[in-house]
TrEMBL record:
This is Catechol 2,3-dioxygenase. Coiled coil: none annotated. PANTHER family: GLYOXALASE DOMAIN-CONTAINING PROTEIN 5 (PTHR21366:SF14), GLYOXALASE FAMILY PROTEIN (PTHR21366). SUPFAM superfamilies: Glyoxalase/Bleomycin resistance protein/Dihydroxybiphenyl dioxygenase. The keyword Oxidoreductase applies.
Length: 312
């Protein structure tokens, strides 16, 4: 098994009460394509991604984060991880086996230390995808997922211990201490970040655009459509990526980004950045201030799916 247990981020799955508005938002506005529908569940693909889907939405009474899915190198790596988690006392939702979702593959699910459902899979069929063209303001792929937790130190340690995630950078505040850990599972600066919050929940999911022009076109498209902007446009210091955050119809924060830093891992050393310094949160100085409004929206609602496996 490689140093990193996960090869990459595959998709994020959301359960939402207002399914129709959510589907309309992700297809007509955000720029994803319907890859398949099964009852009250729809699978949404990014045109530039080989993943079968990057977002799954499910109609449900309660809003929740259904799961986060990561890829593994092969079936043997999946089995090794399941065995390691079992030995460590981590609660498996199911044993490794054939997946019944688009693209098939081999994998299993488990609860992480906060009770989120995490899926690990290998041998998933590659989707026919295409190059996103110049000027197309649609996502190329899912870039990263950020989660809130009341125990970020414990969550960071969990992902380091079992999956070999590495900390790329940390955000801190002089009064509040360390607040966000950027975690990588390949050479990209982060595919996951872990934020200190009042309860476990999805902080945001981020989508990579083709380039700066397409990122700005996408940001403008959201503004013209009247989608509520939370923060941006700007460029973070940690990860050196652009950011524009918007609320989806069910109150989840979604981000357009581009140019996430690719690290030389042999020479990289994590930074401790003080995000009370304006240039840390936004190098350009073009975004609205990081304030209590931005933070409150990113806390999201209390996740009602902790330690409860999704039905799909």
């Amino acid at each position: 098994m490689t140093e990193y247990a996960f090869t990459h981020l595959r998709h994020v799955a959301l359960a939402v009460p207002d399914f129709d508005k959510q589907l309309d938002f992700y297809t007509r506005q955000w720029g994803l394509s319907v890859a398949g529908t099964d009852g009250d569940t729809t699978y949404l693909a990014a045109e530039g991604s080989p993943e079968q889907y990057v977002v799954r939405i499910r109609k449900a009474t309660d809003k929740r984060l259904d799961l986060i899915s990561y890829g593994a190198a092969d079936a043997a790596a999946v089995d090794t991880l399941a065995e390691k988690l079992g030995r460590g006392g981590v609660q498996l939702i199911n044993e490794p086996g054939t997946l019944q979702t688009p693209g098939g593959g081999y994998g299993f699910r488990f609860f992480d230390n906060d009770g989120r459902t995490i899926e690990i899979s290998a041998d998933v069929a590659v989707r026919r995808h295409r190059k996103v063209e110049e000027g197309e303001a649609i996502p190329v792929k899912l870039s990263h997922v950020v989660v809130n937790t009341t125990d970020p130190e414990g969550t960071v340690a969990f992902y380091e211990k079992y999956f070999g995630f590495k900390v790329s950078d940390i955000l801190m505040h002089p009064r509040m201490g360390n607040m966000m850990w950027f975690m990588r599972t390949n050479s990209f600066h982060h595919s996951m970040a872990i934020a200190r919050g009042p309860h476990p929940a999805l902080h945001h999911a981020s989508f990579e655009m083709r380039g700066l022009d397409e990122y700005m076109r996408g940001t403008g498209k959201m503004l013209r459509a009247g989608v509520e902007k939370i923060w941006g446009p700007g460029r973070h210091l940690a990860g050196n990526n652009t950011f524009s955050y918007f609320l989806d119809p069910n109150g989840n924060t979604m981000e357009y980004t581009t140019e996430l830093e690719v690290l030389d891992e042999d020479t990289w050393h994590p930074h401790l950045y003080d995000f009370s310094e304006p240039e840390v949160t936004d190098q350009w100085g073009t975004a609205n201030a990081m304030d209590e409004f931005v933070a409150a929206k990113s806390f999201n609602d209390v996740d009602k799916g902790l330690f409860v496996a999704p039905p799909v």
